[in-house]
Amino acid sequence: MSHFIAQPKQGVPFVSVQAMAKLINSLGIENVLLELTHKLETDFARWTEFDKSPRYAAHSPEGVIELMPVSDGQMFSCKYVNGHPKNTFRELQTVAAFGILADVDSGYPVMISEMCLLTALRTAATSALVAKYLAPKNSTTLTLIGNGAQSEFQALAFKAVLGITHIRLYDIDANASKKAFTNLSAYGLNVTICNSVQEAVQGAHVITTCTADKTNATILTNEMIPQGVHINAIGGDCPGKTELDTKLLERANVFVEYEPQTRIEGEIQQMSESFVVTEFHKVVNKQSLGRTSQDELTIFDGVGFASEDFTALVFIRDQLIKSGEFTLLDLITQQADPRNLFSVLNTEQTSAQEHVA
Predict the structure, then answer these.
(1) Fewest CB within a 10 Å sphere: which of 50, 91, 101, 225?
(2) d(Cα 255, Cα 135) in Å, to the nearest integer?
(3) Who's near 286: CB < 8 A, 6+ residues apart?
(4) Domain 8-117+308-332 CATH assignment equals 3.30.1780.10
(5) CATH superfamily of this structure's domain 128-304
(6) Is pLDDT above 70 for 51?
(7) How does pLDDT run across 337-351, given as a tens digit for each residue?
(8) Which residues are catalytic?
(9) Are the CB atoms for 145 and 112 separated by under 8 Å?
(10) Which of 56, 85, 80, 82 is nearest to 215 (CA)?
(11) Domain ranges in the chain with CATH number 3.40.50.720
C-alpha cells in the first residue's frame, strides 16, 4: 500500500475535529479503542525500529508547549501539544493538539489531523494496553481520580480491553464527576461518584490518576494503597508536576514508556537516577517480567510518548483509506516546474487580473 492517501499533487488529507468524531462514531468508540490497543502493542513490539528522543518542551509559568517527533524510517510523525491547566477557567481546552504524518522518502506530508480527540484515544488505549500486562487478573473495578477530559476515554478503554465493569469517580470539582457519570451512563458500566480519594480507591483493582494542576501534588499517599493494585499514573507529564507519594514508588515495580523522557517529566522525576524502572516495550517483547504476583504493587508512570502518536496517526490514515472520505488541503505548492517557485506568485497575479477583467 502506498504511503500516500492521495497523490501529492491532489493535496494533503486533513482530518478535522468533526471528521474525527464522525469516523469514531461510525466505527464505535470501543471498537476503535480495541483496535488501537492492538496497533500500539504491535508497535511497542518493534520499539527498536523507531528513532526516538525526548520531546521538545517550551515551559512557561502557566503551562507548556511541546513538539513530539518520531520516525520508523518509512514514516515520520510530529505532534504539537500544549498543557495549560488554567485554560479551564478561560473556557478553553487544557490540551490543544494537532499532528502531521509524513513520507520519509519524499518528505511530503501524508496527513494533517486534529489530535485532541486522537490523543485522548491513544492515551486511554496505551493505559489499557499496559494494564493488560500489569493489572491483577480478573480486575473488575477502576478508580478514576481526576474526571476531566480524559476520564470517559479511560473508562471505555478499560472496559473494552480488560472487561472492567465498575467505575469509581472522584474529582475536587463535583461537576466534573457528574459530567463523567452522565457521559458513561449509556455504556453499561456501574458508575459511582465518591466523596474523597480515600473512598474512591476502596476495592479498586486499577487506579488512574489524571489531575491537571501543574504542581508536585500527592494525590495518592502510601497509606491509601494496599498491595496487589495497579496504578495508572498519567497526570504527571511535565517537570514540577507529580501525583504520587515517593513511598509508593519505592514499594512498587515501576514501568515507563521511554526512560530518558520520563526521568524529566514523570513521577520518577522525584527519584534518584539510580531508581530502577522498566521500559514497557521490554514486557511486550518478553525481555522483562510484568506483574510477578497478585500481591505486587505495579505503577505505570505514563507521560505519553511520540511513538504512540505515530501509531494513532497511522491507524487513522488506514481508516481513511478504507472509508475514502477525507478533505484535501492545498498545503504544498504544485507548480509545473518544481524549481520555479516564483511562478506561483505570477499565476496568482494573473488569476487576480483575469477576475478583475
Answers:
(1) 91
(2) 12
(3) none
(4) yes
(5) NAD(P)-binding Rossmann-like Domain (3.40.50.720)
(6) yes
(7) 989 998 999 875 555
(8) 237
(9) no
(10) 85
(11) 128-304
